[in-house]
Amino acid sequence: MPIQFYVFERSKEPLQDMAFMRLGSKSEAFHREGQTWQCTSGLQSDVTVEIGDMAFHLHKFPLMSRSGLLEKRIGELSSGDGSVCVLQLHDIPGGAKSFELIAKFCYGVKMELTALNVVVLRCAAEYLEMDEHFGEGNLIAQTEGFLNEVFSNWADTIKALKTCEEVLPFAEEHHIVSRCINSLAMKTFSDTNLLNWPVSGSINTPSPRNTILWNGISTKTKTQNAGDDWWYEDVSSLSLPLYKRLILAVELGGMKPEKIAGSLIFFAKRHLPLMNKDTNHANPGSTISVPPEADQRTILEEIVELLPIQKGVTNTQFLLRLLHAAMILHASPSCRESLEKRVGAQLDQASLEDVLIPNMGYSVETLYDIDCFQRILDHFMLMDQAAAASSPCIVEEGQSMEGDPHSLTSITMVANLVDVYLADVAPDVNLKFPKFQLLAAAVPDYARPLADSMYRAIDIYLKAHPWLTDSEREQICRLMNCQKLSIEASTHAAQNERLPLRVIVQVLFFEQLRLRTSISGWFFVSDNLESSQNPNGNLALSSQDRAVGIDDIRERLSDLEKECQMMRREIQKLVKTKRSWNIFCRRKSPHSNTTLPIPSSLKPPAK
Predict the structure, then answer these.
(1) CA torsion, points 600, 601, 604, 607, in degrees to nearest 10?
(2) 438: helix, strand or coil
(3) Which pLDDT belongs to residue 40?
(4) What is the distance between the alpha carbons of residues 268 and 290, in angstroms, rounded to a whole number?
(5) Mapped to the 3 state alphabet, what secondary structure does 532-586 carry?
(6) Which residues contact 129 (CB under 8 A, 6 or more apart)?
(7) How confident is the model at residue 128 (pLDDT cuts 50, 70, 90)?
(8) CA-angle at 350, arms to 345 and 353, nearest 5°
(9) Does the structure show a pLDDT above 80 at 533?
(10) Distance CA 359, CA 328 (A)
């Protein structure tokens, strides 16, 4: 039975282009009555094929002339008394639906091969041994030839691969699944604009009504250019096992990790409602129902395993959402640990909103999962220390770190993230002092150019935990470097009654040093303005310029003197309100064996 012709036309699905191949020439010769199929040729049926609840009343000769299995079975069951032979083919691939088409093929009745039925028919034809020994152009050859035609088209290959799940063991045995996947994997590297393949979502996109088909070639106007992600949406409609095999094949073919990560992100957002900010609405264009929690957990764990291991390839925000979803779905500990390490490797790219992960434990102490963030931070610090060891640098207290500027920028960004995180979780009355201290101390002092954010977090924590002992208040205030406070923060700290007195004195002391340094600098500039001259004598400052400069200096000095007077008044207030001043002055410094020096300029004025 030769192939009559190939053509592309509209399928019964809404305005989609799909290849089909027409076989047979006779008009319809079957009709169905309930669970029974009858042949209307007029001849009495002499064989009944039972498949499930369906019974096909047919004739021996058309079946035996095309199928080796049916010839053998009918020959074994036939008797010479003319009784009807009954065959049971309950395990035929595709069931009764596929056998209906096979029966039409055997009788020469018109039928069509499409991307939606060719895989099932190919497997059923192999099962029934419909090879060339039982007639030229038998069903195995016909379906195999059409499969090659299907593989030349992206959309048809996707449809064929989906139908493989109906007959998966048979499709695997005959290597149809692997051929579909290899065909799709190769096409992901191709330029769709040159090949005119359907792109993202186009499998479900209506075609223009004025499309003209000539000799199997579409003459419609070319669609807009597709980007590198054109294949993401189409492959996301595959089941997880098939999608995983496709991703592995694409990766083996040398696909860039960024593209693989992009496809995995698309797949996750389509199948995991927790990955979308608005979980009350389904994704646009998605017809997939929400899978059960167990299936979502499996999908999430598989996605984590498939994610590229290269740092920065996968968006940090996406990784943190995956981690949050993993906690909600109770994913395996290894899955959560893997996500924590991935996030830790690129924590400098995270935002506060993303790292505020609600606590999912049964014995919830704090509102947010502090322990999880601590583990992520510890992993980042381990990697940062390893990077610093590979490019040694010297860091001294009060100095900037010399070495890799990118490393310094990264750890500075993480330090800022930790400070704002602490400020956000500090109001939680259940946040224990050791946890707060451990998290704040995880980042070294050189990573904080300013201590304002740390001071703000400490102040919020002290306000929310008024029951802290004096010793604990002292310890928590050691987490900030008073020398790195800005003028505004220093002014606030000097008037903050929640801080220990020693800390307030430290703040005032360092502010006084800063003012002295500023005054000395301005005097130095003033002397230079008076004596500076151009070496050639052509560009000396005019008397007017010098006068303007001196006026500016005098104005600045006046401001500094006012600030000094204000600070001294603050000290006087402290002396009147805190009776333990003399005792505190004699206390030893916690970092040395000497008492904290108090400059004479900070001593209260004599009455």
Answers:
(1) 90
(2) helix
(3) 79
(4) 12
(5) CCCCCCCCCCCHHHHHHHHHHHHHHHHHHHHHHHHHHHHHHHHHHHCCCHHHHHH
(6) 67, 68, 69
(7) very high
(8) 145
(9) no
(10) 10
Which of left, alpha, beta for 285 (phi over 0: left; psi -120 to 50: alpha)? left
Distance CA 433, CA 167 (A): 61
Token pair 């095999």 in the structure block, residue: 245
CA distances from 437 to 350, 428, 433, 477, 562 (A): 22, 14, 6, 10, 37
Q: What is the pLDDT of residue 272?
A: 94
Burial class (CB in 10 A: 0-12, 13-18, 19+), 123: buried
Mean pLDDT of all residues in the chain?
Answer: 79
Specify whether the CB–CB gap between 451 and 489 falls below 8 A. yes
What does the pLDDT read at residue 503? 80
Give the residues across from 17 on adjacent strands: 10
Residue 602, pLDDT above cutoff 60: no
CB 70 within 8 A of CB 58: no
Residue with tokens 């500016």: 552
Q: Is 218 exposed, middle or buried (0-12, 13-18, 19+ CB in 10 A)?
A: middle
H-helix or E-strand containing 55? strand 54-58
What whole-number distance in Å separates Cα of residue 170 and Cα of residue 164? 9
**Dihedral sign computed on CA atoms, order 594, 599, 604, 606:** positive
Q: Answer with the residue of higher pLDDT: 470 or 564.
A: 470
pLDDT-wise least confident of 66-70, 171-175, 390-394: 390-394
Angle between helices 257-271 and 240-252 (to 10 degrees): 170
159 contacts 237 by C-beta, under 8 angstroms: no
CB 595 within 8 A of CB 589: yes
Quick one: pLDDT at residue 387? 80
Walk across the sheet containing 36-39 and list its strands: 30-33, 36-39, 54-58, 47-51, 85-88
- For the cut 90, the answer to whether the pLDDT of residue 161 exceeds it is yes
Predicted confidence (pLDDT) per residue in 360-389, tens digit: 866 678 899 999 999 999 999 999 888 877
User: In which band, very low, low, confident or very high, does the pLDDT at 552 lie, cut at 50, 70 and 90?
Assistant: low
**pTM, to two decimals:** 0.76
CA 492 → CA 259, 486, 495, 507, distances in Å?
50, 10, 5, 10
